[in-house]
Amino acid sequence: MAEARVLEVGADDVRVIPNTWITMGDGCRLGARIWLPAASDAEPVPALLEYIPYRKGDLMASVDARTGPWFAAHGYAYVRVDLRGAGDSDGILLDEYLPQEQEDGLEVLAWIAAQPWCTGSLGMIGFSWGGFNGLQIAARRPPQLKAVISMYSTDDRYADDVHYLGGCLLGVRQLSWSSVILANNALPPDPETVGDEWRETWLERLELTPPNIDAWMQHQRRDGYWKHGSVCEDYDAIECPVYMVGGWADGYTNAVLRFVQGYRGVGKALIGPWAHWWPQDITPGPTIGFLQECLRWWDRWLKGIDNGIETEPRVRAFMQEPWRPEDANEPRDGRWVAEDGWPSARITSRGLRLGDGVLGGEPHDDVALQHLGVLRYGALAGVWCGHGTPTDYPGDQREEDALCLTFDTEPFEERVELLGRPRLRLAFAVDRPLALVMVRLCDVAPDGTSLLVSRAARNLTHLDGHEDARALVPGQRYEVAFDLDVVGQAILPGHRLRLALSTTYWPWLWPSPEPATLTVFTEASELELPVRPPSPDDDALAPFEPPEQAAGLQRETLASWPAYRTIRHDPATGTIELEHNEDGVETYRLIDSGIEITWESVDHLSIREEDPLSATVRCERRVALGRGEWQIRVESTSTMTSDATDFYLDDRLEAFEGDERVFEKTWSRSVPRDFI
Predict the structure, then answer these.
(1) Cα torsion for 465, 469, 474, 476, to the nearest 10°?
(2) Which of 179, 341, 507, 575 has the smallest CB count inside 10 Å?
(3) Are 291 and 152 within one domain?
(4) What is the per-residue pLDDT for 2?
């Protein structure tokens, strides 16, 4: 092991092992950074594993240095491991969630449990990728794994991830995420960690790591590729307690309640107002003392402390009050509510029939309402799975509503609270063999402000589920039922609900090859709302502790530029262009290691009105990494277009050592459209 350093964290000393190697059975070494209670050699402790590809030595170092020391100071070893092919680890990272990743994870758990500082009891914690593989590895039933905390993850890789949404291609995220992984995987290990072999490892990584989007585009339906790693295929494979955590501003929240409904073991669900980050340090607030909540979970299942956490309500969620769209990143008004089980017998379904522009009320005459989707609709959608920056959120939806087929309720006479997934039963016809429908549910304030509270997409060729697809017969009447995104929202007196339908939603959804007109038959179409009555038990819920103030690894900002999102519409050409820098740009130095880092990420999305085949996504990434004379830069550009029969993918990757370009590669390929 590398020499340990001692950090002062509160009243406790914490030992830090910057890197140690965990050698797999095939000889591949995975790099690990470990935080230990100072007395753990004499008094072994349980261990927590976070197992992700996001580079423990630099890109995530300042984040890890807030979490690892905190848990170590509270009696747990914290082990951060780079996946095979990422960061300081050996090997090639070929794709997300492969069997090799799980096999390596099992070996890592066994290695940790065998260390003299460990009691042999382990937990896995992580958000996003680390939340996914925590569930996946739990389903392998390793004997050392006693509990999991899975944040912002999914039990169904096809239903809720960056790839497909309701069987539609997620144009705003699929290529963008692939380009992030390509740039991340193109970075070298740190010479100070791996020695002189860093360059050979880097060049091999550059040559052999593929753009992940190739695999994703080869599987446009929910086939075995997506079922692998989707624990919903067999919830009973998991035996240890699982704590699922999500946020209303995140993209993975549906999975939280779906998991606790399907899992028969010990499970809990927590949904706050948060975006895609740790709940103690993210907007929109209110934040909570999340690490303290985690500690209660670990104390119960890894140390056997009878703190009663398993007797608390199975589901706890933040019931949001309406907010102004321009204030979406500010702390939300609301209160915490809880349900003992899910689905909850207390929550009832309220049906609202569709009429000619109306939702609910007296029985309506059956009318056939038609709508032709327009391609500029969706520009104000915000991003899928925001990270808490002000540019992430959808704005006032009135302009978007005007481009849709809409149905409004009368103003509500009393307060109504919704918790769960609204469900739409839709009787329809379309005039094209391929079509989709996008559904939004908005809260319309008395002044007309339209606040997006839930939405869903459905590829209408997937009427029998996402494993099969068939062309639609133009003009034929069909029926389909599907859920909207889970919601926890209060509707106030004087407010209305608005349901908005369209056959387009660019750039969220890749458009169908031809403009499609949707016909809605109102008599057989209905929206069901999950209505939660107030409970006196809500007021008795124990409050969360205040958020932790962990200092983390010191970093010095050298330069920064804010995030931005621009929308340009050229009436002369009918072109709509979006440019989005989601996280801004920051150049910073890690004080401890001296590494300087710059990550710049810009997405360009464009389309011409009345021409769905003009849709284009271009993603540009630039990452600079260096210390002293060691200076590395990676630049990539990824592009996706389509015609009526195929998608076209182009990736270009360049790598520089100092000013010298040491690697250049271009990938160009096409993939047939599969009923998209």
Answers:
(1) -40
(2) 341
(3) yes
(4) 42
Q: Note whether 474 and 574 are same-domain residues.
A: no
Write the single-letter amino acid at 640. M
Domain boundary among 318, 339, 360: 339
Number of domains in the chain: 3
**Domain enclosing residue 571, as ranges:** 556-672
408 and 484 inside one domain: yes
Helix (H, G, I), strand (E, B) or coil at 238: coil
Q: How far apart are CA 318 and CA 270, in angstroms?
A: 8
| pLDDT tens-place string over residues 532-578 | 999 989 999 999 999 997 666 688 999 999 999 999 999 999 999 99
What are the phi and psi torsion angles at 202 (to 5°)? -65, -50
Neighbouring residues of 197: CB distance < 8 A, sequence distance ≥ 6: none
The tokens describing 533, both together, are 């009555």
**CA Rg, the chain, in Å?**
25
| Entry pTM | 0.96
pLDDT band for position 181 (cuts 50, 70, 90): very high
Query: Identity (one letter) of the amino acid at 239?
Result: E
Task: Find where tokens 């209505």 sit.
Answer: 531
- Residue 411 buriedness (CB in 10 A; 0-12 / 13-18 / 19+): middle
Backbone angles phi and psi of 5, in degrees to 5: -110, 155
The answer to whether residue 393 sits within a structural domain is yes
Residue 640: inside a domain, yes or no? yes
What is the number of residues in the chain? 676
Query: pLDDT averaged over the chain?
Result: 95
Q: Taking the chain, what is the end-to-end CA distance rounded to the nearest angstrom?
A: 52
- Strand, helix or coil for residue 25: coil
Per-residue pLDDT at 392 exceeds 60: yes
Tens-digit pLDDT profile for residues 308-331: 999 999 999 999 999 999 999 999
Q: Are 209 and 233 in contact (CB under 8 A)?
A: no
20 within a domain of the structure (yes/no): yes
